[in-house]
Amino acid sequence: MEEPPPAKRPKIVRGDDDYMPGNILEIELSKFMTFDKFKCKPGPRLNLVVGPNGSGKSSLVCAIALGLCGEPQLLGRATSVGAYVKRGEESGSIKITLRGNSKDEVIVITRKINTNNKSEYLLNGNIVPRTNVAEAVKRFNIQVNNLTQFLPQDRVCEFAKLTPVQLLEETEKAVGDPQLPEQHRALVDKSFVLKSIEVSMERHKGTLNQLKQQNAELEKDVERVRLRDEILAKADTMKKKLPWLDYDSKKAQYLEAKQRENNAAKAMEEAAKLLNDLKEPIKKQKEEQAVLDGKWKKVDTHINENFQKRAEHLANADQLDVELQGKYKAMQNLRKEEETRQKDLERIRKELAAAELELENLGPSDPGRQEEMKRLRAEISDIDYEANQVLKPRISHVESEIRRKMESLNTCKERMKGMDNKVTKYLDVLRDAGTGKIFEAYNWVQEHHKIFKKEVYGPVLVEVNVQDRGHAAYLEGQAAQYIWKSFITQDPDDRDLLVKNLKCFDVPVLNYTGDVDQRRGTFGIRNDMRALGIYSRLDQVFDAPIAVKEVLIRQFNLDNSYIGSKVTDERADEVPKLGIYNLWTPENHYVWSKSKYGSHMSAVVEQVGVPKFIENSSNAGENEKLKSQERDLEASIATLDDDAKRSRDKQKFLFNKSAELRRKREEISKLFQEEKEKRAGILRRIEKKRDELKSLEEPIDRDAEIAKFVDLANNLNIQRFRNAMKLKELLIECVAYRRSFIEKRISSIEFDAKIRKLEADLKQHEGVAIQATMQFQNFEKETESCQQQLKKSKNIAESIAPLTPELENEFHKMPTTIEDLNTAIRETIYEARSIFTLNNNALEEYEDRRQKIEELAAKLAAEEEEHGRSNTEIEEIKDKWLPALRNLVAQINETFSRNFQEMAVAGEVSLDERDKEYGQYGICIKVKFRQNGKLEVLSAHHQSGGERSVSTIVYLLSLQDLTNVPFRVVDEINQGMDQINERKMFQQLVRAATKPNTPQCFLLTPKLLPNLQYSEACSILTVMNGPWIRQPTDSNLSTLYGRKVNHMVLSAVPWGKPNVEGTTSRCM
Q1: Which of 4, 479, 837, 871 has the most CB atoms in a 10 Å sphere around its CB?
Q2: Are strands 119-123 and 126-128 parallel, antiparallel or unpaired?
């Protein structure tokens, strides 16, 4: 079932608020192209967007296209949406408000874009897919990709290059019935299909005739081929019997193998029966042998147990013997100990008497030695106190002070080294900037600094320190470049000497007289300055020696140059009111000056550059301070070293004296200690001997101990006798077990010999049985192999020729042996080969062509049917499309011709019809701009650029009465027109805007001619750039335009500053 045709576009009717459904009510941009913020409310009819080139008019066109689901490619600018985000920003947004079907209904479409080429769509504040927004746009027939509705500046040339065919396609999309482009496309597609069918039919007819003619020529050869094929078929039938004869042969072999297998099976069964008869007696003999084995093994267990018992008793006998010998030895030791005790008593009595005599001869100790030791101890204590408690802390303090001074000295040297590295870096910068011999000049001044009367500074770049990098950029921008390589003296003679010696190095020399500028006021920031973001003055943001700083201030007026913030940048026009005429901000440098011929101010604004010379560095003059500090530290360290050396020498002397006294005290103490230790040793020896004597004199009963050992020895002898009797009984028992074991073991061996004999006989019969089994297995394998070959032969025969009753009857008529059958086959083949044909493949070619003839005939019939159906469909569509299109072009031509007549020129629009070549149909525009000329087709060869622009805008105006689009956008179409054509074009636009149902129109232009005729249907939107744009007033608008118009000023601040929101004002 065919789909119903799309409904015709409803005619758009203007409402009470003078707006039509789909008109743009408001456009709001954020961070889009040249705008930070932008908002405007277009009028319902003709909107003239006026502004200089680069002010952002085309940004408005881009916003409308992208905001209404357009792709970046249709604008002819960047190909990615991220390129439309304002430079320096990450994201932006477009917000377009469309009028709905009533004045109370609005559709708000928002598109958010970012530099990653991502988009997010919002419909009435809700996030939705792009398709939802596209459907809302399509609802009002908004076509931003149609050049007749939306013509951006970068695609004006594309419209002029449209061919008649392309112009017809764009016109069909923009105006008239929405079915027209669909019908046109259907006609083009179906006519292409129809041509393809016709070409295919002609080709198939020719091929069919050719195939029929070729088959007629082959009919005689086909008859001979068929006869030969019949004979060959008979030979093939004979060949089919060959595998069945082979099958019969294999079947006979299989039956013979099966008979041999059965005979072998009987022989194998007989051998197995005999083998079972021989195994039975062997089994019985083995069972009896197992009983005997159990008996002798049991006796063997008793023998092992008897052996264990005898071993235990033998071990017990050995133990008893050892214990008995121990008792005898203990009795001998008691007798020897008593003899030894008597000898020790006599010896100790003699040693005790000798020790008592030695103690008596030693005498009392000398008391004078103790007094001498006390005196030496006191003197040593006094010396140690002075050395450790007085001199040692003093030395430690001095050494600590020396270490601290050394650390300061090292730090000072490191800082001086760092300063030298920074100086080298600055000198490299000056050399790279063009002062090639700055190193030589600096080294000369450093080597000869002693010959100057006063301090010489330079180069200035080395002496200046700026803590903030931004301030460094201001100072470099304020001061001339020559100053950074200059040297500064403080005495005229030093200046002359320096000029004479540095002349060859090409460096300036300046002399500072030392006078202070009395007119310079005290630095201070007033409240009104602080309110504008001014926070400092240029002479306060750097450090330098006084001479260097004064030269910079006087040379470059630093004390009158102020520094502000970004707030100051935004309110820069208020700064001159504070009496400040030189201002630095993070981005710009402002210099104001008063005119000599009036009171008005002029300003020069430059962008702040990047500092090339100055970087963050140490304090000015710090190098000299560090050198002075180094000299002071070295002198202080030398003094402390002398003091420490004297203290260490005195401490060493005291230590030596204390050591001598200690040596003397040690000698006296050693003598006293030796005497004391000798006396104590003698006393200890006497005490020890007395204790030993007392211990030896205690009485001991040796006879009782010996009697005790005798009783223990008698008990051990009794136990030995009992153990020997038990061993005798175990030996008798062991002999009986041995005799029984031998008897039973011999009986088992006799049974084993009988079993081996029976097993030998069994093994001999097993060989016969195995041979019978192997023979059976071989015959079984042979039978299985014959069976497999039989099955294979049958499968081959059935695959070649399945046996049917008819085929079996034919086989009975043929030879019954393979040799005879092969002979008959060869004879039949020779008979077939004797039939001669010119073309052996004639039959195959004939049948193949016959099949192709049938297929082509079927295809040709189907194509004829399809051709008739397609032709009918084309005629039906053409009957609907062509009259409607002719009527549409006639209406466009009527309006186009009338508009050209009103401009005192001539023009017409016609439909270029090409019969059934529907893809070549087009709209032909012919114009005439001269009285004596003739109508010429609109092209770059016949008309100028301005004439083509006029023709384009008139053609677009001619579509307005027929179009059902809510608005149209044309960007700078008047460029290239002369004043006459531009004025005519404008009057046509104004006249069209006053018609009842004319769509909303946006015309962008950088200028308008003076004294143009406006109407209340016109709205003028002015886009201007600049930091001091004045707001429009009623009086100046009335003076400018001379009649009542709707006017909106859209101000854009340069360098990306926030835009001033447009406000609508009525001018009388």
Answers
A1: 479
A2: antiparallel
CA 57 to chain centre: 41
Q: Would you state the structure tokens that stand for residue 610, as one six-digit string?
A: 């990047």
CA dist., res. 998 & res. 1018, Å (int): 12
Q: Which residues pair with 151 in a beta bridge?
A: 970
Residue 249's alpha-carbon distances to 254, 783, 789, 793, in angstroms, are 9, 14, 10, 10
> Sign of dihedral through CA atoms 788, 790, 793, 797?
negative
Cβ count near 927 (within 10 Å):
24
pTM score, whole prediction: 0.38
Neighbours of 154 (CB within 10 A): 16
Determine the Cα–Cα distance for residues 474 and 609; give it in Å rounded to an integer: 8
Give the C-alpha separation, 569 to 587, whole Å. Answer: 8
List, in sequence order, every residue forming a beta bridge with 97; answer none if it has no partner. 26, 108
| CA dihedral sign, ordered 526, 531, 532, 536 | positive
Please tell me the distance from the alpha carbon of residue 28 to that of residue 39, in angstroms, as a whole number.
4
- Report how far residue 973's alpha carbon sits from residue 647's, in angstroms, rounded to the nearest whole number: 104
Calpha distance 826→1022 (Å, rounded) = 109
Q: What is the mean pLDDT of the chain?
A: 78
Give the integer Cα–Cα distance in Å for 190 and 597.
81
842-902 vs 219-362: helix axis angle to the nearest 10?
Answer: 80
Residues 123 and 109 sit within 8 Å (Cβ to Cβ) = yes
**Helix (DSSP H) and strand (DSSP E) numbers for the chain:** 23, 25
Q: Residue 738 belongs to what H/E stretch? A: helix 702-800
DSSP 605-629: EEE----SS------TTHHHHHHHH
Kindly write down the DSSP assignment for every residue of 351-412, as one continuous string: HHHHHHHHHHHH-PPPTHHHHHHHHHHHHHHHHHIIIIIIIHHHHHHHHHHHHHHHHHHHHH
Per-residue pLDDT reduced to its tens digit, 845-868: 777 777 878 888 888 888 888 888
What are the CA-CA distances from residue 473 to residues 608, 875, 939 (Å)?
A: 7, 80, 58
- pLDDT one-digit tens code per residue, 126-172: 999 988 888 888 888 888 777 667 766 555 556 667 788 887 887 77
Cα 907 to the chain's mean position, in Å? 63
Q: How far apart are CA 666 and CA 655, in angstroms?
A: 16
What are residue 98's DSSP bridge partners?
Answer: 24, 107
- In 3D space, the residue among 463, 454, 447, 605 whose CA is nearest the CA of residue 548 turns out to be 463
| Mean pLDDT confidence for 419-447 | 83
Q: What is the pLDDT of residues 380-390, one digit of tens each?
A: 787 777 777 77
Distance CA 784, CA 94 (A): 92
In the predicted model, what is the mean pLDDT of residues 97-124?
Answer: 90
Question: Rounded to an integer, what distance in angstroms lies between the CA atom of residue 141 and that of residue 133?
Answer: 13
Closest CA to 49 of 1006, 823, 737, 1067: 1006
Are 715 and 323 in contact by the 8 Å Cβ rule? The answer is no
Q: Which residue has the tokens 């061993």?
A: 727
| Band of pLDDT at residue 1045, cut at 50, 70 and 90 | very low
d(Cα 910, Cα 171) in Å, to the nearest integer? 13
The three-class DSSP label of residue 985 is helix
Select from 56, 57, 39 the least CA-distant residue to 48: 57
Q: Residue 1032's pLDDT is what? A: 47
Residue type, 816: T
* Tokens 């092992």, residue located: 304
